[in-house]
Structure formats: structure tokens, C-alpha cells
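Work Package 3 (structural annotation) set out to generate three-dimensional models for the target panel prioritized at the project kickoff. During this period the team completed the workflow that converts sequence records into C-alpha cells, so that structures can be stored uniformly alongside our sequence database. As a representative example, we reproduce one entry of 351 residues exactly as it appears in the project archive.
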Amino acid sequence: MTTRCEVSWFSALCDDDYEQLGVVDADLLSSWSHCRDIVLRAESLGYDNILLPSGYALGIDATAFAGGMAAITNRIRLLLAVRCGELWTPQLARQIATLDQMLGGRLTVNIISSDLPGREESGPVRYERTAETMGALRLLLSGGSTTARPPYADFAVNAPRVAPGHCPPLYFGGLSEEARDVAARYADVYLMWPDTRANVATLIDDLNKRAASHGRTLRFGYRTHVVVRETEDEARAAAHHIVAALDDETGDRIRARSLDSQSTGVRRQAELRDTSAADGFVEPFLWTGIGRGRSGCGAAIVGDAAQVRAKIEDYMSLGIEAFILSGYPHLEECERFGRMVLPHLDHGPLV
């Protein structure tokens, strides 16, 4: 059983911040000032890390944002999301090395398998390029050299001069067979989206076996929304308020605009929602209604402080060591969780 976990929040760089899903508030659109305020508040509340999400067509650039935050944060780690299809690996290695230097070793990296902008590619193509990218980053950031050949890349380079001598921890997720194989070979932390307790345990067992076949071990992370209030009834009311203004057409449009809207993981989130009870709960305190208006992570832990804490600790008993949390609006829910639950968890950065 895991007794200590890393607790991260979410800075909504990808235009994913609302009071009510589907109702656009200009003050909550991603901007330097809004996303900066989320990071600084998370740091002041004691969160260990914060995800800086990435979307080609949405929001502001995560890498540029991370550079700005490096100068005005002191303790919190930054979990920089990078889409492999959008970045040239040698340049990405130099960017990561530079950010790691600016942050004094506080950088972590969320690798995302993605298409090239403006092009749709098959899963095998995307994940083979992702594997090459992760392998090359490990070599270059550790001070080595690497060579890549077509069709995915074509270069032969030495490490950038600023290489830190180690690769920052690589967080990576995906449910497809290709994604699981990439994680087993190259990831440090395998990230999963919400699922039933039984399926979480099954997934952890599968990834542990795959990693062992490569002579490796994995750590596990869980990405979920959270709605915490003084009472369970208040939490449920707050959850339903988030989707109260959402109609099916708007929800479909929001989900479709995501770059990963057809992935295996997204389909699983839809299945979870379809098998939930009439109130949207698929098991105690796990509510899928939030997935009606967003792609990707499609469920939330909902309850009072003790219930939310117990749910997190139950996942820890299965082997989850890292939690990436979010809530709507992100700044307000960051405050609530940081005040009501975070002080009662044994947490700290993954090492």
C-alpha cells in the first residue's frame, strides 16, 4: 500500500475553465494572468506539482508559460505537457534542459502522443514516434547522443550543452495497446483517467507486468476532477450546477474540439458515463456527469472532505502515488481542496 502521494493541481492553459460547462466566461479563458494566478495559489496552498496542459488550437503555449512561471515560483513543480507531433526532438530536449535549469530541477514532463498539426495519423504511427521521442529525450538529457531515421524523424545529434545529466520524470498515459507498450518501455509515471476501482486495479496489474517484461518498474498517477464541500449534499448540488446549463449539442461540440476526442481513453470515459446510474455516479463518490461537457478526463470525485480524502486513500491502497486534480472554476476549487483535504493527506513530490 502506498502511504504517501504527490498531489498536483491543474492550470487551465487549454481554455478549460468554467463556472458552468458550456457557458463561456471571458475572465476564465486562458491567459498569462489567469493561469499564473492558479499556479501561484496552488503553490501557496502547498500543492506539490501543477499540470500545464497543451492543446495546439486552444489556449496559450505551455512551454512559454513554464518559462515565465520559473522566475516567480519557488517550490512547486511544473508538469509541462508536450505533444510529440508538434515538436522537433532535439529542440524539445534543449527547451526541457533550459527549463529544468531555470526551475532548479523542479520540472516534470507529461508526454502526449499526438498528430502533426493539421494531419490525422493512425495510432501505430503516433505511438512509434512517441516511443522514439521519449527514448531520444532520455539519451540527450542524460548527456548522450542519438540518431533517428525516417519515417518519423531524421537527425543525428549530441546532447545540448545545458543537458542536466538526467531526464526529468516522464509522465505518460493511454489505454490502447500501443500506449501501454510505450509506457512500459519509457515512462516513469503511468497516468490514468478515472475508472471504477476494479478497473484501476486491473490496469495497474497489466502495466506492472508489461514494465517487468522490459526490466523496468512504473509508478502510477490518477487524473481526475474533484468537487468537495462541507456536506455530501452540498457537493452533489455543486456538481450538478457545473452541468446545469449544458445541453447535449453543446456538450458534443466541446468534446469534439479536443485533439484526442477519438482515442481509446476517451471512448472508455464515454463507456463509464453510459454505465453510470441515473444520477451519474458509477460507484460511490465517482461522478461521471462532468464528462458530458469535456473530452478526456470525464469524471470527478464528489463528496465532503472526509469522503474525498477516503476515496483518494483507497486509490493509494491500490498503488496510485500521484494525483492530478482539477475543479470548476479551477481557482476556487483549488482553494477548497487545498483548505479542506490537502492538509490531511500525507503528500510530497515524487522522488
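Residues 6-344 form a domain with the TIM Barrel fold (CATH 3.20.20.30).
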